[in-house]
Known about the structure:
Blueprint: H1 2-25, H2 34-60, E1 66-74, H3 81-84, E2 87-101, E3 108-117, E4 120-130, E5 135-139, E6 157-158, H4 164-170
Antiparallel strand pairs: 1-2, 2-3, 3-4, 4-5, 5-6
Helix pairs in contact: 1-2
Amino acid sequence: MLLTIVGAIVLAIACAGLVSLGFRATGQRAPRGVLPLTGGVAMIVFMAWIENSWYGRTVSELPESHVVVATGEFSNFIQPWTLVFPRINRFMVVDTDTVRVNEAEPTLRQAEIILVQRYTPTVVTRQFIDCAGARRADNTDATELDDSGLPTNVSWIDIPADGDLMATVCNHPVG
Length: 175
């Protein structure tokens, strides 16, 4: 966040300087208020670009094995353009390199799920995905497994059978 603010200030000064140079090159003085207005507009445009391009820039940096399976949109009245064009400020990723199949129950898979949200630390979880039952459960330190490796004390949550999480985890080839 600090670098974003510093970048906005540097850009505002640079834009105001370019406008000032343009006026000087023509032999005129910049009208009163034009330079601060130029700096302010540059800061607003820069901050809007930073906020609205965050998702695309972040996803483009992910390895090929990471597949985005869900996104969360954000809009509010303080940023009125988000009411028309909501921006994505969080998403869920499956690391397909971590998908494992349970030998005792081939329809039960385990995968690493990464939860990414703007201005929040990234959370990495391991989850069980029941491909036959369209449900998931968190694999925590408190999870107990029976002799065949099946979870015994987890809380299952129903998920859409046609959702991207199910499709990514259940259709991924496991070697």
